[in-house]
Protein 1
Amino acid sequence: MTVEKLLADLQTDLQIIFPTQKIQIEQEVDRLYILLESSPSPCVTETLRSIAPILQALDRNQDCYVYGRELGDQFTSWQRKFHPRPLTNLPLNATLHSPEVVAAPAEELDIQIERIIICGLGSLGQHCLYALKRFSSDDLEVKVTAIDRHIPKDCEFEGILSQLDRSLILGDCRRDQFLDAAGIRDCQAILIVTSDDN
């Protein structure tokens, strides 16, 4: 099977699993790149668990880089390096749509998630958000929630609000109800970068 045919089949199979997403695939010598775009941004864990059996069925010993972003956004929300394990004990006539392939367990995903709250989404808060999201790596996903009294009038980066993992919480970050809404009980860190020192 030619590389072009393989990529066309992969595109078709991914479009069946993710019918509402825009999918781009690029091939290099030893790497495969897949970009998934949807609104909202595709969920990283669900996406990788869905895509794993298809990539394993390709039976190609190459790393695959999977990216997700919100449709129309210039930033990716997440990216993961994925090295599929070959599937074993499949019938010789198995295809990508065979029940054995679809039911095959996805490779266990060892992804650490760090949850961070930013209090204040002015210029400094936006730069912190941008830096934190760029810190995500193959095995670390950084999820950021923000609290501010107002929606920022000036955005330092185009589409920066879409980098938040939840909608901006409008309120006073000193109040328990807004901290609870932002997920304070599950977060690893809080950045207080408001313009008000109180």
Protein 2
Amino acid sequence: MSLLSVKNTLSRDKYSTGRNKMIIMEERMTNIIIVVDATNGFCKEGAIVDKGIMQNVPNMVNLIKRKRLLGYKMIVVADNHKPDDLEFQRFPKHCIIGTEETKVIDELKEFVDYYVPKTRYSGFYKTNLAKILEKEKPKEVIVIGAWTDICVMFTIADLCNRDYNVVVPRDCIKARDMTKTEMCLDIIENTLGAKLVETQEEL
């Protein structure tokens, strides 16, 4: 084999190796669904229960089932408060650590890949959510759950600040104060830069 042939072979091998590394990196990227506060304390029982959230649960289930077939993983971020949490100066006591209120609703619990306890509005504040996302390297993050005007919006803000590609289906989120829904959706779409779609069936 001539020297030129050897150089060409090495060059092809180097290109092939680099290409294989790129393919492996792409295969390791897993898209994510983040479900915010779809727990008993928000949906079924407790001082801040909002049973209107349950109206969106069939849409959430439909979305999650379809996307899991495509390899999406599901992360639940959920309130888990100490009894003396300062948040209770603004809201009634809810979702105390170790209680039934902190558990994912039955309709969704079979799909959970990660459960992230949180103590504030954003799913990132003093949690391991950032590390999970760094590990999974998602191309897309779909955010669903409650409430649009509090924890959903603050979690989306921190996702967008980290340059994730965020998508939000309107029929899978619910505001605490319904009069603020459109204002919050405008901020989510036009200020934070998330993609807003009308129904989960569009995804």
Protein 3
Amino acid sequence: MELNFTLIMQILNFLILVGVLTWLLYKPVTRFLDKRAQDIKELINKTEEAREESSRNLEESKRRILEAQKEALHIRETARAMAESERREIMEHARKEAERLIEEAKEGINREVERAKKELKKEVAILSIDIAEKIIERNLDEEIHRRLIDDYIEETRRLH
């Protein structure tokens, strides 16, 4: 019986210990565990919110990158169009300038040709007069000679 009594006492002591520990520690441990569970739930919620926020930020970043790429493409196309337009304007300006220079050169050549013609006519007239004088001096008398010179001078005045 002693063995049974000891066993009963041990069981009784154990039950008292459990009762006292439960009475003393149950509420604080339960509160601690409840608080820990609540903290874990909050942490899980915050983590989920952070994950969702990260997902939204990632989507926003992707959208912004796509918009930036579209804008860069638009800018590139606009710059290409502007460069092409500028190239056309420069080519047109160069063509007009070349035409103007060619026209000026033609006008200059025509002026020089006209000046050369006038100069040649003067030279021919002077030479003709010299030749005519020599022929007349040999063949004409002085009165006819004067009349021819006067006629030639009159003719020259009318031409100029």
Protein 4
Amino acid sequence: MPTYQRFEELPVWQEAIILAERCEDFLDEAADRLTWSKRDQIDRASLSVSNNIAEGFERGTTNELLAFLYIARGSTGEVRSMLCYFERRPKLAHLKPQITQLKVTAESCSRQLGAWANRYKTRVSPVCATSMTKAGPTIKSRRPAKRGPRNSSNSSPSTCRPAIPADRKPPHAEGGGLNLKSKI
């Protein structure tokens, strides 16, 4: 099992940097065919992926790491959405192979980030499940509800607490490096 001491060693960070570099190359080729705002948006979103991975890795708690992994994953979605738009534009048809390769790289980053976050999510909150609704994420308790008057020990969605304190440091912040059981 590899142990990571620096974010630069993480395979997902390395792939995210490749995504940012390739997006910049794409923007150089498409510069005269895109508005400044679209170029700026995809440029910022693509670099945001690696930056948020790095910032999360350097943070002191598992909850902060998770938050930044999800932000990074959201940025991969933003990059893919913009690439889907560019793919539909006739004036960018000559760049379609490059756009397709960028989408593949962004999807790979997203999958790796999701797998990494899921490993930590189960460590942080083994008795709570998060589900997505149209209104956003909701937390549901996996424990059966207790009967009788509600009290602080009742495990309802509003009192569902992470099993690991929010201020607990992730394994790599304790000096031992980040040890991933499976390849991300």
